[in-house]
Amino acid sequence: MTHVMVEGGSQLLGSFAAADQIDEVHAFIAGKCIGGRSAPGPVGDPGIKALSDATSLRLSRVDSFDNDVRLIYRR
């Protein structure tokens, strides 16, 4: 197997991040404000203590769809 697409909640994505198994991220930004103080973030606690320990990805593509934007980051 060479590719796996993971669509899940913050706990699943946090597990993949902690295992250093994320090579590509598709992030969508919409012109809507939702959430609140107790709203979960997109990635659960991957156990990264310092910003320098986080996986670095580079912006590879930007697409716009009506009023939304997709950002694609790759390792």
From TrEMBL:
InterPro entries: DHFR-like_dom_sf (IPR024072), RibDG_C (IPR002734). One of its GO terms (biological process) is riboflavin biosynthetic process. Signal peptide: none annotated. SUPFAM superfamilies: Dihydrofolate reductase-like. One of its GO terms (molecular function) is 5-amino-6-(5-phosphoribosylamino)uracil reductase activity. Pfam families: RibD_C (PF01872). Residues 2-69 form the Bacterial bifunctional deaminase-reductase C-terminal domain. This is Protein containing Bacterial bifunctional deaminase-reductase. It comes from Rhodopirellula europaea 6C.
